[in-house]
Amino acid sequence: MMDETRRKLLASARAAFAEKGFSDTSMDDLTAAVGLTRGALYHNFGDKKGLFAAVVDQIDAEMAARARSLAEAESTLWNALLAEGSAYIEMALDPEVQRIVLRDGLAVLGDPAHWPSQNRCLDATRAAVTQLLAEGVLRPVDIEAASRLLNGAALNAALWVAACDDPALMLPKAQEAFRMLAEGLLVAQAS
């Protein structure tokens, strides 16, 4: 019963946040839409911000899974790392991702470095950088610094694409710049 209540609240909130944004979404509207009360929301998520954080985490996890699935098609770990970053940036074209994660997420939840979903992405990047360094693909570099900068570059590129007047026009520019920045870590400039 509790899982079903959480699922209903998440689905209702996700639709409402995507359509209206965080500030224009009423707790009463999103609970009434699924036949629940504010008490159910408070019990399961603490408050509206807690529910929003859960929605961001859900979407960000889906984004990471999509990026990983594209990366799995690549022949090398390096190409997989580039594919994940590029895919993350491209997801800034998705209206739900734009509004909930890349716009309201920052305004409501603050620094993405403190979001559990972003830290899971950082962990995956750190593992890839560690392996690439061990294989001699990367120049000697601090693993933590390289991992955080790669993650930050992809996130900031996605934020830029989502916020600009013509996201589709800016996307290839952002992806190319991300690739060029990342290639600066390579021992040889061929991938």
UniProtKB/TrEMBL annotation:
DNA-binding residues: 26-45
Start and end residues of each HTH tetR-type domain: 3-63
Transmembrane segments: none
Record keywords: DNA-binding, Transcription, Transcription regulation
Pfam families named in the record: TetR_C_41, TetR_N
SUPFAM superfamilies noted in UniProt: Homeodomain-like
Record bears the keyword Transferase: no
Top-level lineage group: Bacteria
InterPro entries: Homeodomain-like_sf, HTH_TetR, Rv0078-like_C
Record-given protein name: TetR/AcrR family transcriptional regulator
